Amino acid sequence: MINVALPKGRLGEKVYQIFEAVGYECPAIREENRKLIFENPQRGVRYFWVKPADVPIYVERGAADIGVAGKDILLEYRPDIYELCDLGIGRCRMCVAGKKDFYDTMGRTLRVATKFPRIAKEYYSSLSRNIDIIKLNGSIEIAPILGLSDVIVDLVETGKTLLENDLEPKETIVEVSARLIANKVSYKFKNQEITALCGQVDQFCRLRAEQERREMA
Ligand code: PRP
Question: Which residues line ligand 1 (CB under 6 A)?
Answer without folding.
Answer: 138-141, 154-161
